[in-house]
Design a protein that fits this description.
Blueprint (H helix, E strand, L loop, with lengths): L2 H18 L1 E3 L6 E3 L4 H18 L6 H24 L12 E5 L7 E4 L3 E5 L3 H4 L2 H16 L2 H22 L3 H9 L3 H9 L1 H22 L6 H13 L14 H18 L7
Parallel strand pairs: 3-5
Antiparallel strand pairs: 1-2, 4-5
Helix pairs in contact: 3-5, 5-9, 5-10, 9-11, 10-11
């Protein structure tokens, strides 16, 4: 079989496989690739979460932790109720929600693993200031899990590695030669700059939008969100990398988009009554 026929057969096979592996994100309905089982990532995330709880110092600030859990529970219920009332499949139905507060004032961060495993660092509490601010941060992180962004990223990494290996075969090993000569990992380089970063920024913008939706459904004031990013920008003191080199949109673009979305979201996704 010549190289052209081989490429045709492989391309057709990949296209058919990808069509069967496509899904859509909740609410935004963006097409996304899912090659990795969600259950597998959830199990891995749960195991890592336990190790983090052992390694990191947990905060003894019970008031803040209870505040986090209260906001989280409201969001859990509001998200599930929204999908129930909309007669849609609940993307959180297999989540095993859990919340921790890590004692590290230097870290202004929060994250949510697949399956609803959430961590807040005490350093970000100086930025959130109040319940609405904390809900905005938590809504954004929860949105990543609800939209299955980790599954999507893992799937794209699998696809990128497979495609790069295929290109190397079809190019007679030229890609491997470049890697050996330059000492660079082409897949890693493409992931960081050429291919994956714009996609990651798309995920971040989507999480911004969905986070606003979840905060609004839970009864929080989403107008507080822009104030948080203003405070975050001030806290970074101009040290953030240029947007094209970052996985996150710039603070200025983020604030602009949030302002554009807010009124529509308040009208379309008002606080929802939960049983």
């Amino acid at each position: 079989m010549n190289r052209r026929k081989f490429l045709t057969y492989v391309s057709c096979g990949c296209c058919g496989f990808m069509l069967n592996s496509c899904a859509t994100t909740p609410i935004t309905e963006r097409r996304q690739l899912k090659l990795i089982p969600e259950s597998k990532l959830n199990a891995q995330a749960a195991a890592i979460y336990e190790k983090i709880k052992e390694k990191e110092k947990m905060s003894d600030d019970k008031k803040s932790l209870n505040q986090i859990k209260e906001i989280g529970k409201k969001m859990e219920n509001s998200i599930s109720e929204y999908f129930y009332q909309s007669n849609l499949d609940d993307p959180t139905k297999f989540f095993d929600w859990e919340y921790i507060l890590i004692d590290n004032k230097k870290v202004k961060n929060a994250w949510c693993m697949p399956g609803g495993k959430i961590a807040i660092y005490t350093g970000i509490l100086d930025v959130t200031k109040n319940n609405d601010g904390l809900a905005a941060i938590m809504g954004h992180e929860i949105a990543h899990a609800v939209a299955k962004h980790s599954v999507e990223r893992a799937s794209r990494n699998v696809l990128l590695n497979t495609s790069t290996q295929l290109f190397d075969i079809l190019s007679g090993g030229k890609l491997s030669q470049v890697n050996r000569v330059t000492g660079m990992n082409t897949v890693g380089l493409l992931s960081q700059i050429g291919l994956m970063n714009p996609f990651n920024r798309k995920q971040e913008s989507e999480a911004d939008y969905l986070g606003l939706v979840f905060s609004s459904l839970s009864g929080y004031n989403i107008q507080e969100t822009t104030k948080i990013w203003e405070r975050m920008k001030d806290a970074n003191k101009g040290k953030a990398p240029p947007e094209f080199m970052s996985t996150h949109p710039s603070a200025a673009n983020r604030i602009k988009k949030i302002n554009e979305w807010s009124n529509e979201i308040i009208l379309k996704y008002p606080p929802i009554k939960t049983s």
